[in-house]
Amino acid sequence: MLANGDIELKRLYANRPGWHRVTKRRFFLSHLDTPEYRGYVTLLCIDGVLRPLWKELDGRRICIVDAGFSWLQHFPANKHYAVTTMFDAGGQIVQWYIDICKEHGVGDHNIPWKTEPTVRAEMVQGFRQDKHKYYALFQSCMPQLETVVARVKELDPKLVDLE
User: Fold this and answer.
1) Residue 4 domain-assigned?
2) Starting from the edge strand earliest in sequence, which strands make up the sheet with 22-33, in order?
3) Does residue 139 register a pLDDT over 80?
4) Each residue of 88-133: pLDDT tens digit?
5) Hey, is 127 helix, strand or coil?
6) Distance CA 161, CA 144 (A)
7) Distance of alpha carbon 4 from alpha carbon 148, whole angstroms
8) Rounded-to-integer distance, Cα 29 and Cα 19, Å
9) Where are the alpha helices (DSSP H) in 11-157?
């Protein structure tokens, strides 16, 4: 806890430096400034793991980390959320989630980070992935995300400070 009473939130870096489960990785990042999107996009390619990571979601057991998997992360500028999409070794989406967080930024070596999420919306994808469907899906989720953010702010304004 900080001197002013606020809770200090842990920063989660896009390259996941302390993630010991992943033994070999490649990391790429780009900053985009287009009419459609402004912010950082990162790609974590998982080339080796100590053991796969399985998760239960919506009654399904899914693998979200294994050799050959990749995690695509979006950190949109001036927003209080980040989007993570997990792809399997065949390039199919296995899961994606939206973290509503107090803030995100860029740290040492230009590596984007986000604070621990206050709200996480997780989805399991069952359709064949292509970039047009992904972009349409991402765009279609924004109104719902804004609704979730507004509702969370109504419940407790300290959770999500949008000003």
Assistant:
1) no
2) 22-33, 38-49, 70-76, 81-87, 93-100, 119-123
3) no
4) 998 888 888 888 777 888 987 889 988 875 555 555 544 334 444 4
5) coil
6) 18
7) 28
8) 18
9) 131-155
Q: Which two tokens stand for residue 21?
A: 């489960």
Domain that holds residue 25: 11-155
Q: Is residue 142 part of a domain?
A: yes
pLDDT for residue 7: 56
In a domain, 161, yes or no: no
Q: Are residues 72 and 41 in contact, defined by beta-carbon separation less than 8 angstroms?
A: yes
Residues 10, 89: Cα–Cα separation, whole Å:
30
Indicate whether 117 belongs to any domain. yes
- What's the number of domains the chain is made of? 1
CB atoms closer than 10 angstroms to residue 75: 23
DSSP type of residue 109: G
Do 152 and 160 form a contact (C-beta atoms < 8 A)?
yes
The CA distance from 153 to 145, in Å, is 12
